[in-house]
From TrEMBL:
The lineage of its organism: Bacteria, Bacillati, Bacillota, Bacilli, Bacillales. Coiled coil: none annotated. It comes from the Bacteria. This is ABC transporter substrate-binding protein. The keyword Transmembrane helix applies. CDD domains: PBP1_ABC_unchar_transporter. Pfam families: ABC_sub_bind (PF04392). The chain crosses the membrane at residues 5-23.
């Protein structure tokens, strides 16, 4: 009898241990988050995403981030998408418009169902990423950074802030649909504001040389959304300083690296905001039922040190609503 009792108790104890071990193992298995980026220039979005998840109460060891980077080369993006999908992520976060558009093509073609959060993309409905902002449908949702929609407002701020501007050089990317749409809206605004503008396609091989040959006193540079333009920040800062030409960027890091001003939502803020979507998907929500959000923050930033270097007068009334940004040590202003 004692032997039977001993065997029964032992069996129960072993069963409890096995069940507890199984439960702990499943609990410790990290959630696989795929991250797709066109290049290094957008890594601040990943930093913002990780910070946002931490603020929401998640621990670092709860996630495994599978990052695929095309290194600023669109021809490599397809391979990165294939590798990412074959790594079987539970959720994918795209760090921009081109990543989202190309990923959606692959997923639609192959009937792949993985929830996707775009951590900031311009005009997602117009670009075919979603059906509607209130009810996206399908597998995609995220942040509309409004960088196409505010193109006209950015031009207005530039010419109002610097009354001496006589001509604006608009930098766009003819190989980016988002950039071309932004150009269209900027040209419409220029016509309404009676501003003289000259568009430049950064995809042209001779673009930098031709641009520099055309720069004159009282000109300004105006940047539109494009991963190519994002990767040219240091080069454009040098042009700004060499020719004393003010530059209107979009992102906070551009001002920190030497641009005179920017108006838009930062990479880090876009990633931080996207963390809420990731959390909602983890809890079982459907991406198609999560409305696309506007950016939490659109910031007007001015680099005071760059103003001093360029020696230009700024509209003091408009300057009252601007934030002054610190400058990175590696920048030319510090």
């Amino acid at each position: 009898m004692k032997a039977k009792w001993f065997l029964m108790v032992s069996f129960i104890l072993i069963t409890v241990v096995i069940l507890n071990y199984s439960f702990d193992t499943s609990k410790e298995t990290p959630i696989r988050i795929g991250v797709l980026t066109i290049g290094d220039s957008r890594y601040e979005k990943l930093v913002g995403l990780q910070n946002g998840l931490k603020e929401l109460g998640y621990q670092q060891n709860e996630f495994q981030f599978i990052v695929k980077n095309a290194k600023e080369n669109p021809s490599k993006l397809q391979k990165q998408i294939d590798e990412l999908i074959h790594s079987h992520p539970e959720i994918i976060v795209t760090l921009g418009g081109i990543e989202t558009i190309e990923l959606k093509k692959v997923m639609d073609k192959n009937h792949i169902n993985i929830p996707v959060v775009f951590a900031g993309a311009a005009s997602p409905k117009e670009m075919g990423m979603i059906k509607d902002e209130k009810a996206p449908g399908g597998q995609f949702t995220g942040i509309n950074n409004y960088h196409t929609s505010i193109s006209g407002k950015r031009l207005e701020i530039l010419v109002d802030l610097i009354p001496s501007i006589q001509r604006v050089h608009i930098l766009y990317d003819n190989e980016s649909e988002i950039s071309k749409l932004s150009l269209q809206k900027t040209l419409e605004a220029a016509n309404e504001l009676s501003v003289s503008v000259k568009p430049w396609n950064v995809s042209d091989a001779d673009f930098p040389k031709n641009l520099e040959n055309n720069l004159k006193k009282n000109d300004a540079l105006f940047l539109l959304p494009s991963f190519r333009i994002e990767s040219m920040t240091d080069q454009l800062v040098n042009i700004e300083n060499n020719y004393r030409i003010p530059t209107m960027g979009i992102y906070e890091h551009e001002v920190k690296n030497g641009f005179l001003l920017s108006y838009g939502t930062s990479f880090k803020d876009q990633g931080y905001q996207a963390a809420r979507y990731v959390s909602l998907l983890i809890k079982g929500n459907s991406p198609g039922e999560l409305p696309v959000e506007m950016p939490d923050n659109i910031r007007f930033l001015v680099n005071k040190q760059e103003q001093d270097l360029l020696g230009i007068h700024l509209n003091q009334d408009l300057l009252k609503i601007a934030e002054f940004s610190d400058v990175n040590k590696k920048g030319s202003n510090k």
